[in-house]
Write a structure and sequence with these properties.
2 strands; about 80 residues; binds FE2/S2 (inorganic) cluster; two-stranded antiparallel sheet; 5 helices; Arc Repressor Mutant, subunit A; mainly alpha; about 55% helix; elongated
């Protein structure tokens, strides 16, 4: 299924770029131009990056950071 109709980019192509380490819409745009014309596909590209690819979902990253800085946990561990 096409994600970016301006450049004929499919979901599968976006996932392949993501699996190759391109984990932001800007990096996807650099690889295949998707999102650089009308921009209507950028939200869909963002959604694809968060699931079914090797790119980490933002919620997991936020949880990891939050756990790192919880003072009570640091005090218990000491
Ligand atoms: S649909 Fe992707 S830039 Fe227009």
């Amino acid at each position: 299924m096409y994600v970016c109709s301006c450049f004929g980019i499919t979901e599968e192509q976006v996932k392949q770029h993501a699996d190759a380490g391109r984990c932001t819409p800007r990096q996807i745009a650099s690889a295949c131009k998707a999102g650089t014309d009308c921009g209507s596909c950028v939200r869909r590209i963002q959604a694809l990056l968060g699931r079914g690819t090797s790119c980490a979902p933002r919620t997991e990253m936020a949880t990891t950071v939050a756990r790192t800085f919880v003072p009570d946990e640091a005090a218990r561990a000491a």
